[in-house]
Specification:
By secondary structure, the protein is of the alpha/beta class. It has 27 helices and ten strands. A hairpin with a 5-residue loop joins strand 1 (36-41) and strand 2. The longest helix has 29 residues, at 230-258. The chain is elongated. It starts with 5 loop residues before the first helix and ends with a helix.
């Protein structure tokens, strides 16, 4: 994984940079010649700021094809890292925002200007206000993806700063950014009463006309904001309460999940009620009415704060919630002069939201809640979010305790493999025959490892480990080693018991999820194409082709698979991913290859290798 530079983190609280970003973000709305503005800074270090304009058309916020919340699978070609590695499911993103970014990427000078800034080794900052912030998020991730493919760490990591940006991605989107260690590249400023960041929490597909009126009302170019008619007041109130009700539903649902209340009733409820898929990510800085800035990184806590800062008691003046959306430039500049920042994650890290909190520490929590103008009822939900985060780290600690156990078991299987080779036996065939005590002991190790890895996969699938766990190189390497060393034993066991006859081919019906995941894990870490590292399934390929040929299938029908396997064998032997014991004279592979048609063997890409095997045999 590419490390995030310290310079990007330092830039996040640079007052001069933030002043330029918020000013440019507001100016971008008035640009008629380009979807973004570009500004360069020379001090304190060379920097290029790309500020994206927002859209005030409802068509650029929601469409009927992806009802009710406008979310759909992200473009995997542009954003290959944004997916879940366990399920291989792509992240979901607001489709109109994605479409807008794709159009900018194709039709504007963005790529050329970004490439120029990268070549000049400038710090690149993407910024935007309102939906322009959502576009800047996608631009930053796009460049981060490009870094992975073409950069060896020679350039500055891009940074993204948004102001009043709507939520854009789902839980998998948030998880992927954490896994890749990119989440720290994103800084979001939100006024506590600004309605716009919460808008995606409501089912906008059924509110498109109202949304268009709202966007027209808050458009910086519009004069509607100065109007205070009864009709506009009613519209703002209805829209405010619609967003608020949906935010409340999501807040309660998320708290239930965080507190472990995932009952069947809750599952049935989610089948009837469609929840907004969007989740916050990165660092959120809430701009409080008393001039204080509250910084929070916990995604679940941010989601709770987006509701509790906007709760029903504040609905007396709906105008305020919409007017605040256009006050970032004036208010933020005054806030930055004071630099009065409270780090909400500090409170969580010190367990000030815990149920066993010292009474002397309660004033700190009360101050925190008062800064954000949240009631004490928010405390329980913030505690649930903090506790869930801490539980994930406790789970990780327990999993880390098994690391040495897995290593010891793999070392034992490495020794078993070496012993088999000394006896002139192929590792796979010796295990498949199960004739000696050593074979039985190897099977015990296989089963122990299966239990340990199944627990990890299950916890990952339930999001019970920190999102960064999947990005840890020590575990990625251990998973790859496990897959290469142990999956051949699972394949041997599968065909030893003739499970293919009842269940079907191993690759189609029998392959456990733990091997699919560790394979994808390794491929993702090395930026390899999906499905390109199937060397651990070598024996399953041999067994299936052999079974087809034994069932009198004509060679011409399996020839293409044979050629592909031979090409892979050559590469895997050269790389060391396939052990030399597969070439021992009595191995299943050697016997199968020797039985191939003579004419094919003469022209085979591994003919020379197999000729040496034949002579030595």
């Amino acid at each position: 994984m590419m490390p995030i530079s310290a310079s990007a983190a330092a830039a996040s609280m640079d007052k001069v940079l933030l002043h330029h970003c918020v000013s440019l973000s507001m100016k971008a709305h008035h640009s008629s010649t380009s979807p973004f503005l570009l500004h360069s800074l020379s001090a304190p270090s060379p920097c290029s700021i790309f500020a994206f304009a927002g859209s005030w058309s409802a068509d650029d916020w929601i469409d009927g094809d992806h009802a009710p919340f406008g979310a759909s699978d992200i473009d995997s070609l542009l954003f290959p890292s944004l997916k879940n590695l366990v399920s291989d499911v792509p992240a979901a993103v607001n489709m109109p925002f994605l479409r807008s970014f794709q159009l900018i990427l194709e039709a504007s000078r963005l790529q050329a200007e970004v490439s120029k800034a990268v070549a000049e080794k400038k710090q690149i900052v993407f910024t935007g206000h309102s939906s322009g912030g959502a576009i800047s998020v996608l631009a930053a991730i796009w460049l981060l993806e490009k870094h992975l493919k073409t950069d060896n760490g020679n350039h500055n990591v891009p940074f993204c700063i948004t102001f009043g940006s709507p939520l854009i991605g789902d839980n998998l989107f948030c998880q992927a950014l954490q896994r890749e260690d990119w989440s720290s590249c994103f800084l979001h400023f939100v006024m506590t009463m600004d309605i716009v960041p919460r808008i995606p929490l409501a089912p906008l597909a059924s509110l498109k006309e109202e949304l268009q009126s709202i966007l027209q009302f808050i458009c910086p170019k519009s004069s509607c904001l100065s109007s205070n008619s009864f009709e506009i007041s009613q519209l703002l109130s209805r829209f405010y309460f619609t967003v608020l009700r949906n935010a409340l539903t999501i807040s309660n649902h998320q708290s239930c999940l965080s507190m472990g209340c995932a009952t069947s009733l809750l599952g049935n409820l989610s089948g009837f009620i469609k929840f907004s898929p969007y989740k916050p990510f990165g660092t959120y800085v809430f701009c409080c009415n008393n001039g204080r800035l509250v910084s929070v990184k916990n995604s679940d806590a941010i989601l709770q704060m987006l509701f509790y800062c906007l709760r029903e008691e504040k609905a007396d003046d709906p105008y305020r919630s919409f007017k605040e959306h256009l006050q970032y430039e004036s208010k933020l500049k005054s806030y930055l002069e004071v630099q009065n920042v409270v780090h909400g994650d500090y409170l969580q890290a010190n367990e000030l939201f815990s149920s066993e909190m010292n009474p002397d520490e309660m004033p700190l929590v009360e101050t925190f809640l008062n800064d954000l103008d949240m009631g004490k009822d928010a405390w329980l939900h913030l505690h649930a979010a903090a506790e869930w985060e801490m539980q994930k780290f406790r789970n990780q600690k327990r999993i880390d305790a098994n690391y040495s156990k897995i290593q010891e078991a793999l070392n034992a299987l490495d020794n078993y493999r070496a012993m088999c080779e000394l006896r002139g036996l192929c590792y796979y065939d010796a295990f498949k025959l199960q004739r000696d005590t050593e074979d039985f002991n190897a099977n015990v190790k296989r089963l122990e490892l299966a239990g340990l890895w199944d627990e990890i996969i299950e916890m990952l699938s339930r999001f019970e480990l920190p999102d960064r766990f999947e990005g840890r190189n020590d575990w990625v390497k251990l998973g790859t080693r496990y897959c290469l060393l142990v999956e051949p034993l699972d394949i041997a066991n599968y065909y030893r018991h003739s499970k293919n006859e009842d269940t079907g081919p191993y690759m189609v019906k029998g392959r456990p999820r733990r091997y699919k995941f560790t394979q994808r894990w390794g491929e993702h870490a090395q930026r390899m194409p999906k499905g390109s590292s199937l060397e651990s399934c070598f024996w399953a390929m041999v067994e299936e082709i052999s079974a087809d040929m034994n069932n009198k299938k004509p060679f011409v029908e399996v020839k293409e698979r044979v050629l592909e396997l031979e090409k892979n064998v050559s590469a895997w032997l050269d790389s060391g991913k396939l052990g030399s014991d597969v070439l021992l004279g009595g191995s299943t592979f050697v016997k199968w290859w020797m039985a191939l048609p003579k004419q094919h063997k003469l022209s085979s890409c591994i003919a020379r290798i197999m000729s040496r095997v034949e002579k030595s045999g």
